[in-house]
Amino acid sequence: MKTSPSGTSRLLRDLRSLNVVVFHPDDADGQELIAQLRRIGCHVQAFWPPRERLAGEVNLVFLAVRPEVAAFDPAWAKREDAPPLIVVVNYENPTMVESVLRMNALGVVASPVKSFGLLTAIVVARSQVERERERIRYVAKLEQRLASQRKLAKAKTILMQTRAISEDDAYRLIRDQAMTKRVTTEEIADAIIRANDILSFEARPAKDG
Question: What residue ranges do the domains of the chain occupy?
Fold first, then answer.
């Protein structure tokens, strides 16, 4: 799923409403990063060392990857609704790369921080997380549709067996009931399945004690 030109414009417009958390030591690089973000229009909160929890609404996180936080593994980064994470790196080695991958970072900014590339990193990270959330919503809808179809198929089978009618007649019966009661066919299917389960339970012979 590609980001449309209008979607890119929206991402750029939204920059001034972003609540950004910066986990960075209070040094010249950290101060430059905060200054650049504020020039863009972001609302910035800065902390060091990194915190295990995020308070309030956070739209974006910057994290300086340093040896002392290489094992940092916050719970908030694993949530489906986690804000996009951009890491700030000042060295490269296998341990650092592994840390960045484990943190599910969606962007990388090199130290020393410069204005060039920062805006692009923010927009790309936010675009990626939006596409991923859209994909999750799409998959959830597909799963819900499949579950509904399975439920409808089961309800039709019950009607076909109990009333000796065809599959088409069973579906028409479910559809007509849904229209009459002004509910969905899935709700009617649910009611048929529940009623059949209750009747099947009541029809079972009692076991000898």
Answer: 5-115, 140-203
DSSP string, 5-56: HHHHHHHHHGGGG-EEEEE--SSHHHHHHHHHHHHHT-EEEEESS--SS--S
For the domain spanning 140-203, the CATH number is 1.10.10.10
Query: What pLDDT is stored for residue 201 in this prediction?
Result: 64
62: left (phi over 0), alpha (psi -120 to 50) or beta: beta
Closest CA to 156 of 143, 173, 144, 142: 173
CA–CA separation, 34 vs 32, rounded Å?
Answer: 5
CATH of domain 5-115: 3.40.50.2300
pLDDT at 3: 54
pTM of the entire predicted model? 0.68
Give the pair of three-digit tokens for residue 96: 């650092």
Q: Which of 23-32, 67-76, 194-203 has the highest average model confidence (pLDDT)?
A: 23-32
